[in-house]
């Protein structure tokens, strides 16, 4: 009887571990997607910053004597 209970507990634990791994993998995929989107936004912001700096430089050059 004890052996059956032990085996049932092991099977239950195995199922929980598989479920936990599945949840963790889902989270990893979600976080990777968020990271990619954040990197895209960062690149956009860097491009806008560079455009702004160039516009400021052009404006300064036009107003220099």
At a glance:
The chain is an all-alpha fold and 65 residues long. The chain has one helix spanning 2-62.
Report on the architecture of this protein.
By secondary structure, this protein is mostly helical. 94% of the residues lie in helices and 0% in strands. The protein has one helix at 2-62.
Distance between the termini: 97 Å
Mean pLDDT: 96
The beta-strand count equals 0
How would a textbook summarize the main sheet?
none
| Percentage of residues in DSSP E strands | under 5%
Order of helices and strands: H
The number of helical elements comes to 1
Structural class: mainly alpha
List unreliable stretches of 5+ residues.
none
Principal-axes shape call? rod-shaped
- CA gyration radius, whole angstroms: 28 Å
Helix content: over 70%
From the structure above, extract its key features.
rod-shaped; mainly alpha
Write the layout of secondary structure elements.
Blueprint: H1 2-62
């Amino acid at each position: 009887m004890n052996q059956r209970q032990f085996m049932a507990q092991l099977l239950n634990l195995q199922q929980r571990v598989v479920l936990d791994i599945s949840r963790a993998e889902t989270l990893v995929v979600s976080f990777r997607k968020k990271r990619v989107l954040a990197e895209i936004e960062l690149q956009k912001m860097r491009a806008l910053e560079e455009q702004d700096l160039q516009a400021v430089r052009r404006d300064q050059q036009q107003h220099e004597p």
